[in-house]
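Hi P.,

Sorry for the delay on this. The queue was packed all week, but I finally got your sequence through. Input first:
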Amino acid sequence: MSVPLHIFDLVASNVFEISLAIGFSAALLALLLGILAYVRLWFTGDRGWRPASLGVALGLVCLTPAAYAGYLAFTLPSTADVSTALLSPPDLIMARGATAEIDPELILVSYPNLITRFYQIPTTVLFELAEKQARQRGWQVIGSMAPEAEGEGGSLNALRRSLLGWSNEMAMRVAPGPVGALIDLRAASLHATPHDLGDNGRAIEGFLRALDQSVTEYIQRNMAFTDDDAQETVVEGLEGDGLEGE
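Then the structure:
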């Protein structure tokens, strides 16, 4: 019950976390009581195997998300505040950012796509494609500064809701590069959390993969237009030469 309430922003995050703790505690209690009932029924031969089995089954079902979360917390590094630019990450507007140090090597091992992207396109085009991608994902833009010229940079800040309803700030920075433009992203949880179960890391990786596809499609379209223009120019020239020869 607490999950949909939190997703639709009907309860605060701290209330949601307390509700989760109560729910998982009740599930654990049901599992333990069901196991104790098995032991008692085995020695006494009383009736009650069906309700004991129901308690064990419901306890296991309700504890499965907690077990999966524990697995993620144990195997993945926290991305409560992570960026593709660890030395100079994009600025945040609402999130405070994490105070704990992040091991860049450990982050790259778990999230190999969390690196700065370089594209051979103008900064204005890259910012437009990135902003479009953010809006398509349902991110709520809270700050945007688009580059006015091709050689200028820009920034964008947006809020993203996780699958369970936690809010995260996504910061994006577009800047001119040696050839074309580059983009860096940063994701930070709005509420203090020791571990986000890798949610921000997966969000940045998914965004960058989609952006790679958008940039590839843009370059292919422009190459096709350029080839068509070149073919038309050559054909006109040949026709003109043929008429002059006659």
